[in-house]
Amino acid sequence: MKITLNNNPETLDSDKLTVSELLKVKNYTFKMLIIKINGKLIMKGDYDSALIGNGDDVQVLHLISGG
Amino acid sequence: MTFEEIRKKLSGKKVGIAGAGGLGSNCAVALARVGTGSLVIADFDVVSESNLNRQYYFKDQVGTPKVTALAENIRRIDPSVKVAGHNLRLTKENIPLIFGDCDVIVEAFDLADQKELLIETVLTVFPDKPLVIGLGMAGWGNNDTIHCRRVDNLYICGDEVSEIRPDLPPIAPRVGMVANMQANVVVELLLK
Q1: Contact in structure between B156 and A61 (CB atoms under 8 Å)
Q2: Which of B12, B37, B64, B163 could be A64's S-S partner, Cβ–Cβ 3.0 to 4.6 Å?
Q3: Do A32 and B164 lie within an 8 Å CB cutoff?
Q4: Domain of A30: which CATH number?
Q5: Chain B residues close to A57, C-beta within 8 Å
Q6: Which structural domain, as residue segments, surrounds residue A30?
Q7: Is pLDDT at A29 greater than 90 in this prediction?
Q8: Are B187 and B152 in contact (CB under 8 A)?
Q9: The dihedral of CA B179, B37, B189, B116: what is its sign?
């Protein structure tokens, strides 16, 4: 499938992925994240069930300390 | 727009600031200087010696709650700016109550888990309210890596990569840049 990940086109082998699977595929190991699929916030507890499909716009924001 | 027109427009606005550390204190001062009518500031901490390398406090304020010290500093800049200081730890439950009537919310925490709590709560409870966050400003130099981008109603200011470490502390120049960049986004939104 083809998705947009952080504003960049991305082609993935699977037809559907959960958020957790996408994080694994992309090697995103950060603990603190904000994730949106097509503008909708995905809560941390839903990472294993929320599905990403062809054409989806996914934003993954890595939260880092400092301020 | 003349400065008088800017002040007039901003005088009717209310901005929420979550955290009164390096980002929050500097952002609040910038917003106060341009005449933002009302600031709602929340922080549970007191001013410590180690804060003075970047936060808008003075040596004789060490030990004072940050919201008290910041309200006093803003009063000395412009007593017409209303400051509502909340000396408490922000939670999922109190964030909507404290910032519910703000036109814009500024995320100005230092720790990633606090940032996550605030962003998740605001995006859930107030999906239409602009939220301006600071992300990545440790160290020094690298002016050109600091940027601002928008994801829906979320505005991200910072370099998004420089996390604080013992050998990469947050210090005044870059923290102030991001804090003022956040204030600049707030002003842009409020003057629309």
Answers
A1: yes
A2: B163
A3: no
A4: 3.10.20.30
A5: none
A6: 2-62
A7: no
A8: no
A9: positive
| Model pLDDT, residue B52 | 98
Domain ranges for chain B = 3-190
Flag whether A51 is in a domain: yes
d(CA A40, CA A48): 16
pLDDT score of B46: 98
Strand (E) or helix (H) holding B15: strand B14-18
Contact B101, B38 (CB under 8 A): no
> Which helix H or strand E contains A40, and what residues bound it?
strand A40-42
* CA B58/CA B31 separation, integer angstroms: 19
Q: With respect to residue A67, please indicate whether it lies within any of the assigned structural domains.
A: no
Read off the pLDDT of residues B88-116 as tens digits, 9 standing for 90 and up.
Answer: 999 999 999 999 999 999 999 999 999 99
Residue A57: what pLDDT?
Answer: 97
Contact criterion met (CB below 8 Å) for A62 and A7: no
Could you give the number of structural domains in chain A? Answer: 1
Q: Supply the pLDDT for residue B25.
A: 98
Q: Which of residues 109-138 of B touch A (CB under 8 A)?
A: 109-113, 115-116, 119-120, 123-124, 127, 134-138
Task: Identify the CATH number of the domain defined by range B3-190.
Answer: 3.40.50.720
